[in-house]
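Help wanted!
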Amino acid sequence: MTETTSSVAPPYPTAAEKLKFYGLWVGAAVVLLLLPKLFSSGGSLTTFSLIGISIIFSLSYNILLGQTGMLSFGHAVYYGLGGFLVIHAINIIGANKLPIPLPLVPLIGGLTGLLFAVLLGWVSTQRSGTAFAMISLGVAELVASSALILRTFFGGEAGISANRTKVFRLFDWSFGPQIQIYYLVAAWTLIAVIAMYALTRTPLGRMCNAVRDNPERVQFVGYDPHVVRYLAFCFSGFFAGIAGALAAINFEIANSAYLGAVQSGTVLFATYIGGVGFFIGPIVGAIFVTILSLGLSDLTQVWQLYFGLIFIAVVLFAPGGITGLLMMHRPLLKAGTFGRVLPSYLIAFVPTLAMLIGLILAAEIIVYYAVHSGDDTHIKAFGVPFDAANRYVWAMAAILLVGGYWVARKTWTFVGHAWDDATSVAREKGIAA
Amino acid sequence: MLELIVMSTLNGVLYGMLLFLMASGLTVIFSMLGVLNFAHASFYMLGAFFGFQISRWFGFWPALLIAPLLAGALGAAVERYGLRRVHKNGHVAELLFTFGLAFAIEEVVQIIWGKSPVDFRVPSLLDFPAFTIFSTNYPAYKMFMLLVSIVIFVALLITLKKTRIGLIVQAALTHPHMVGHLGHNVGRIFMLVFGVGTALAAVAGVIAGPALVTQANMAGLLGPILFVVVVVGGLGSLPGAFAASLLIGLVQTFAVSMNGSLSGAFGPLSPNYAATWLADIWNVTIAQIAPIMPYLLLVLILIFRPMGLLGTRDT
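Answered by r_m:
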């Protein structure tokens, strides 16, 4: 028993490790500073701002889902309320000429999120698991429906708007141009990411993980899982409020869609697709999903369907998300056996791609006949024009889909063998998978 | 006043029975597989749209039979090829899978049938007033809906309580491993239950489609209320789901027909703050807050009786 109860602290990080750790944050800051120099168009600045907001929101969501194991279907409540309060705050600050500069305004959103998480969280976090998921959904519906009833405060369907340039100015920053908003969002993103990372390293962050993994044991140790869940919920609400505030500042409007089920679903998609098991997962997911939703909508009409299918595919085949998939390869890279699986990937890639192309082709043809039948049959999807009425295209789609699936199944078992082979070699070398 | 009470009770019981048609499947699936099927309302929607399409081709009566069978087969396939695969990744993954499925089903329905409501009509055989009370005609179709849901309710009760298959299902609810050890194919029972549960939801869809609006957002509107029903009734409790269905059905129908508001009740007081943004709360009528009644009920239940009305277990 002496080994398990010994309280030897982990060794202090060496200077090189420290340098690597702090260098990472400094590097991130430098990248955020330089991004607008590389991509200076207005569109890309807006995209970056949206990604930053999405990163904060997804990370705040992961405090619940990834770190404390609470699946919430109503996280947008705190995001949306933060946004609404900030719009009202900007209007009040502008009207009364209060000396509060815009860079501090997101804090108001954060505190709003915190306040409502404190109010609603105690009831919501009494139970975890499925019950919590359903409660969060009910609370979200309650708030979203109430927002439509309280028209004066929430502005009904149209929402309420504000003018961010009317706020007290510090150093003559007007926050009119998008570049200034980008830097505001970037600064807050960096602060929030660092704060949330630090949170995972605190005793509270560790207890959250313990509550996720084994709440019963946490009770035996002397903690109340309900209180731990509640605290995590409050922190999560705070950061969601900041994200909502930044979104409200960015768009200068808040409407009921901020609070709605779509917003809650989007953050869930982003976080899960990115991967809930690692801190960086939601960041990857936020970038991926934001770019995907902006990019896919130009390429195809039914992008939401593909979006849903991607999500289902991730849940079915890669429960660790994108980061989980990438991190799986770390022991192989360390052991130097990655070269063994790479050829099998290349072999499997071709039929899988063929299957996907067949699937997309079939879907687009079906969409054509369901939605636009009678229009010009020469349609364009993902930038590729083709004739939806052409029997050869149909046959090609069917062959690609069925043939691709058939061959891909065989190659994926091949990948599985190569994978087992590579990991067992890695394990022999003493690197845990 | 009496007219209002009688009509609201009739409509409320009807709505409650419809809710129970769906909630029963959801509850049994939950107690058995441990997963709350987020896509359950989507199968209700699929039932309505399949029913609409089939009734166009072959008429309403074949649709009443074929659409639930189709949806049930689809549900069984979802369990066999989807849920069973994600089962090893835990309950969160299962719930997320059904969530993604609900999203995808809504998209597909939107693509095929469009966003606007489809013209799903009451069959001409039932398109007449059944009886007249207080000078209001009560449509025969609504009585038919009530009849169908009661028949299914009774059939479900008899199947679960009196037949051998119901016995196995009940045993598998609490002791799936023991049932497996006794030589029953638990996987197949799960698939069957999932298929029957989704088929019941589809039946509700087919019979509710002509009376309510058949539209691509009907699952999104009804889904959350369905979850309120199962949570309020107590997760996994079939009698609880029945009580909660009727309760929510009645509460919502009664609320819609009432016009009272704070300003109506305390109008002469007319406090100063009634002119500020609190005016919304001051002036809102009970009919206007009817949509949020189920969620208010949910929050109240969670505060005062977290297990639900008749629930026994904690998760």
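OP: Thanks! One thing I noticed: The beta strands of chain A are 160-161, 253-254, 378-381, 384-387.
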